[in-house]
Every structure is written in C-alpha cells, then in structure tokens.
Write a structure and sequence with these properties.
It contains no helices and 9 strands. It is mostly beta strands. The chain has one domain: 3-layer Sandwich (Rieske Iron-sulfur Protein). A hairpin with a 2-residue loop joins strand 1 and strand 2.
C-alpha cells in the first residue's frame, strides 16, 4: 500500500503473506505489529492511537509506540514490532 493511503493515527488491518498485520502511521514513521492484542487477541486495527499509545478496544490495554511495550496495566508481554520499510512511497512489511 502507499504511505499516503494510511491516515495518521489510524490503525489499519492488512494481510501480508497470509498473516494479519496492523499498520499504523505516526507522522513520518510507519509501524507494524501482528493484528492481535497479546492480552486477549482482539484486533489491534480496532485500537485507538492517542499521544504515542495504542489502546486496545476490547479491554483498554495500552502499548507504547514505537516499541510496543505494555504501559497500562504493566504486563509481562508486549507488542513485537515488525520490520517496515517505505520505498518510493510504498509501505513494505516483513513477516
């Protein structure tokens, strides 16, 4: 997909090689994670992005961006960032 197709702060679900991925544009940076909250598996593409935090829509668990570390509540798990590259305006995600 083209980077300009991603609205800033709006998580978007895509499929990459048969894997569901959540892609998020935060200004000049594009991030990607598996499209499931590690708490209960709810799609992160339904999450809300506010002030550098991705908040799961199901239970409100929060993860810091861009590293994916759990913020609230403190948790033993986090989001694992996927490798993202923007080349000639096209977003490329490695899974």
């Amino acid at each position: 997909m083209k980077v300009e197709e991603l609205a800033i702060g709006a998580p978007t679900a895509i499929n990459v090689g048969g894997r569901d991925v959540c892609v998020l544009r935060t200004g000049s940076e594009v991030l990607a994670f598996e499209n499931r909250c590690p708490h209960r598996g709810h799609p992160l593409s339904e999450a809300e992005c506010v002030d550098g935090v991705l908040r799961c829509a199901l239970h409100g668990w929060e993860f810091s961006l861009p590293d994916g570390n759990a913020v609230s509540p403190p948790a033993p798990f986090s989001l694992e960032p996927l490798e993202v590259r923007v080349s000639d305006g096209v977003v490329e995600v490695s899974v």
